[in-house]
Design brief:
This protein is α/β, with parallel strands linked by helices. Helix content is 27%, strand content 22%. Helix 1 packs parallel to helix 7. The protein binds flavin-adenine dinucleotide (FAD). Belongs to the FAD-dependent oxidoreductase family.
């Protein structure tokens, strides 16, 4: 399949239907011939993935089929395996060669924080099964004290306070990264109040051999010789960027030493005028959906201006070290730019509803539909 716009409108191909990609695709749907490509059947609102682990009635509202996203454009369930300039080769053998190409292929993260099943029925069944596994476990081991590990501990304690939860990390403190120390102190204070045990500055000799999120007796040993026993464990570290389709193509060299795609202020891939990249794979900012959303506005605005010849080109401005870490629906802390966020602020922004309805509505789902 060779694709050129059949509608007379310029063509835009968006690779990846995560937070950034769906926003670009939707915003340009009225002005371009948009094709959204993703190997999975639907968008995953993974911000609410950990809440759905403890509250499985939410599962139907976080896995959202792409078929109702675009009015004019189309969704193609396929995977980019090679990109050469604006030419995209798909796993199916198809080829797309649009006027504008947007790389928004994001990252994967260990289940249940992200779920890479390609069909939604299987993805949802896996999530519900993980809930059942957790429900039958009394002792939980979380390996990784970053925002995902802390959030997971908070969810489990909020919904099942009797479970024993221990978090381990090689780092000496929780939440490594560009954050103020008061935030770490406050999160540790709340975790202690919830009864979460922290084993920081310890290295495990090896990870459990049992797959994560599966109930089975586990015994791990730290390099100091201490033993930790649990009934289930979760891996909450190990982000992997999806840019392997650049290997061997003309854009292979645009990645920096950490693997991020280098973009300019207008979110164009280094050296390109009509290839853009955004979200977790771009080197523009931290790997957060909020940044992907803002970058999507810049990319869509710039492509629209190129297509219509109207409007100024937009430039992306970095967020500061902003973060919200819920610990259950009513707890948590964060940094919103002017000091520590209270549990009430975090709860209002994210913790209470995990932004579920906002995303379900984007995909044409009514508030009571599931
Ligand atoms: C548990 C958890 C909670 C989080 N909470 C927050 C939060 O509260 N606030 C916040 O701002 N951020 C949060 N994040 C981070 C946020 O989820 C990511 O930053 C965000 O998903 C990045 O969006 P993206 O559009 O770059 O890519 P992604 O959302 O990773 O989507 C990428 C898409 O590309 C597709 N894809 C991959 N390879 C290919 C290919 N070769 N061809 C075509 N398509 C491909 C994938 O299937 C996927 O659908 C959280 C993350 C986790 C794990």
């Amino acid at each position: 399949m060779t694709d050129t716009a059949s509608t007379g409108r310029p063509s835009v191909v968006v690779l990846g239907g995560g937070y950034g990609g769906v926003s670009v695709a939707k915003t340009l749907d009225d002005v371009a011939d948009v094709t959204l490509v993703d190997p999975t059947e639907g968008f995953v609102h993974n911000i609410a993935a950990l809440r759905s682990l403890v509250q499985p009635d939410l599962v139907d509202r976080i896995y959202l089929p792409y078929d109702r996203l675009l009015v004019h454009g189309r969704f193609v369930q396929d995977r980019a395996v090679r990109v050469h300039g604006r030419r995209v080769e798909l796993e199916s053998g198809g080829v797309l060669e649009p006027d504008y190409l947007v790389l928004a292929t994001g990252s994967s993260y260990p289940f249940p924080a992200k779920n890479d099943e390609s069909d939604l029925a299987t993805a949802k069944a896996r999530h519900r099964a993980a809930h059942e596994e957790l429900a039958r476990a009394a002792r939980v081991l979380i390996v990784g004290a970053g925002p995902t590990g802390l959030e997971l501990a908070g969810e489990i304690k909020a919904f099942a306070p009797d479970k024993h939860v221990v978090i381990t990390d090689v780092a000496d403190d929780v939440l490594s990264g560009p954050f103020v120390q008061e935030l770490r102190d406050e999160l540790r204070r709340q975790l202690a109040e919830l009864g979460v045990e922290l084993r920081l500055g310890v290295k495990l000799r090896e990870l459990p051999s049992t797959p994560p999120a599966t109930r089975e007796a586990i015994r791990v040993t730290t390099t100091d010789g201490d033993e930790i026993a649990a009934d289930i464990w979760y891996r909450t570290f190990g982000v992997k960027l999806h840019t392997e389709y650049l290997d061997g193509g003309s854009l292979a060299g645009v990645r920096d030493e950490r693997g991020y795609v280098r973009v300019d202020a207008r979110m164009r891939v280094e050296g390109e005028t009509r290839v853009f990249a955004l979200g977790d794979i771009a080197n523009a900012d931290r790997d957060v959906a909020a940044a992907a959303g803002r970058q999507a506005e810049v990319v869509a605005g710039n492509i629209r201006a190129l297509i219509t010849g109207e409007g100024e080109s937009l430039e992306y401005a970095r967020f500061g070290p902003l973060i919200a870490v819920p610990l259950g629906p009513e707890g948590g802390s964060g940094f919103f730019g002017d000091g520590l966020a209270t549990p009430e602020m975090v709860s209002q922004l994210k913790g209470r509803d995990m932004m579920v309805d906002r995303h379900a509505t984007l995909f044409g789902m009514s508030p009571d539909e599931a």
